[in-house]
Design brief:
- The protein is globular.
- The protein has one domain: Cytidine Deaminase, domain 2 (3-Layer(aba) Sandwich).
- Helices cover 29% and strands 19% of the residues.
- It is of the alpha+beta class.
- Strands 2-1-3-4-5 form a five-stranded mixed sheet.
- β4 and β5 form a beta hairpin.
- Belongs to the cytidine and deoxycytidylate deaminase family.
- Keywords: Hydrolase, Metal-binding, Zinc.
- This is Cytidine deaminase.
- Its cofactor is Zn(2+).
Length: 139
């Protein structure tokens, strides 16, 4: 059984509030090299909204994606599981997380987590099917 199935009822998702928080975070990004600021926001299972932005580095490989900042904020403010996620680019348009960030989001996803996409909300299990997780480390 997947670690993404089952679970308690999630808080109601206000997609516009999530997108607004993602846009606000995007405007705080540090992207002097790519000129591509990204903002992300997520609803936590306790009703909080956490956000993050990308932070670049002259050594490009050390750049932190917005999802990294979001997960750091999640843990620094009490933890929890992510119920819904939104991400925007410099044009304030919906942006899908890269593969690395999808794996990071999976680690902190609540059962039934959904991502904002250009086609509407999509379950995390559709975004990262057959995901590797902590259950694989116990086998």
């Amino acid at each position: 059984m997947s670690e993404q199935s089952g679970g308690a009822a999630a808080p109601e998702i206000d997609w516009e509030a999530l997108r607004h928080a993602a846009r606000a975070a995007m405007h705080l990004a540090y992207a002097p090299y790519s000129k591509y600021p990204v903002g992300a926001a997520a609803l936590v299972d306790d009703g909080r909204i956490v956000s993050g932005c990308n932070v670049e580095n002259a050594s490009y490989g050390l750049t932190l994606c917005a999802e990294c900042g979001l997960v750091s904020t999640l843990n620094a403010t009490g933890g929890g599981k992510l119920v819904a996620f939104a991400c925007v680019d410099r044009h304030e348009q919906v942006l899908m997380p890269c593969g690395r960030c999808r794996q990071l989001l999976w680690e902190f996803a609540a059962p039934g987590m959904v991502l904002d996409t250009a086609d509407g909300p999509v379950p995390m299990t559709d975004i990262l099917p057959l995901a590797f997780g902590r259950q694989d480390l116990n086998s």
